[in-house]
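Exercise 7b. Backbone tokens:
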């Protein structure tokens, strides 16, 4: 008997500008083709890049390379801009370009409205949630459950759309105020998922290549990369503010430096607060503030 059940359509989105494209994209694409279940789903890979489109079967979106962290911070903007093309899929999945699939991906992960991978660096410790209560990505203590890594996440079309459009607007509002969270796009993602139902994937879906798996059997490796070389920060103007306000490269670079200083000062301020002898009272105040501002639940 022939199975007439329509295949689920999956769109995989990645960003690979500069050296990321030749360094990582061939491995990512070939491993996706090998280990995603093409018998029960159609898979299309989309890549935002400034490089020549040399990989067959991949849909390329032309973008301008931006200095880090805008290259990662503005990913929600890029995805929203191409939403008309992406929205044809039943399920959308974001993957970092520097990943390699090692074994078949269970089709059950695509049965949840939202999914994200638990950060392998914080399996036995609390992750680096945004702790600054003045920041839009602040996560209150009762909501600090799973800390997700920003390299592998996705969801069904409607839930994914809500996430993208919400976070794009939040990032834009913060940039116009000269604010940037401690872990950039990952802080936004965790703040959103802390308040929405999300299926937590095991760390085997983003296991770091530099860490021996021991008793684990990774589905996906997060490959090692020379950050400073590949991020290409030197001699580049930043386009983050330019995208939002039409600034010149010189003005955009000045804004980036200001944002970086704000983020650095925030880290110092929070570290000092956490190192005080009254740290327990800080945590108590956070819990009280959360419950004081929590909207009442209807019966």
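Sequence design result:
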């Amino acid at each position: 008997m022939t199975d007439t059940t329509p295949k689920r359509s999956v769109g995989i989105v990645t960003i690979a500008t500069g050296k990321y494209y030749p360094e990582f994209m061939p491995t990512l694409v070939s491993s996706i083709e090998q280990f995603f279940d093409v018998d029960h789903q159609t898979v299309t890979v989309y890549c935002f890049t400034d490089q020549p489109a040399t990989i067959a079967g991949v849909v390329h979106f032309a973008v301008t390379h931006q200095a880090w962290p805008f290259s990662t911070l503005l990913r929600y903007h890029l995805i929203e801009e191409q939403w008309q093309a992406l929205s044809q899929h039943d399920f959308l999945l974001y993957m970092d370009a520097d990943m390699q699939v090692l074994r078949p991906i269970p089709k059950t992960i695509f049965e949840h409205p939202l999914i994200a991978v638990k950060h392998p660096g914080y399996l036995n410790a609390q992750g680096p949630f945004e702790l600054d209560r003045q920041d839009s990505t602040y996560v209150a203590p009762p909501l600090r459950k799973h800390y997700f890594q920003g390299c592998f996440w996705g969801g069904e079309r409607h839930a994914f759309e809500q996430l993208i459009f919400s976070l794009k607007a939040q990032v834009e509002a913060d940039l116009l105020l000269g604010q940037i969270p401690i872990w950039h796009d990952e802080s936004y993602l965790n703040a959103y998922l802390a308040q929405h139902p999300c299926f937590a994937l095991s760390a085997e879906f983003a296991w770091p290549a530099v860490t021996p798996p021991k008793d684990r059997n990774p589905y996906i490796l997060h490959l090692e990369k020379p950050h400073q070389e590949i991020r290409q920060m030197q001699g580049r103007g930043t386009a983050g503010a330019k995208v939002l306000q039409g600034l010149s490269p010189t003005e955009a670079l000045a804004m980036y430096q200001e944002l970086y200083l704000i983020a650095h000062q925030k880290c110092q301020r929070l570290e000092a607060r956490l190192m005080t002898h009254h740290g327990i009272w800080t945590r108590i105040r956070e819990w009280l503030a959360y419950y004081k501002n929590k909207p009442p639940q209807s019966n």
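Instructor comment: The first helix runs from residue 20 to 35. The mean pLDDT is 83.
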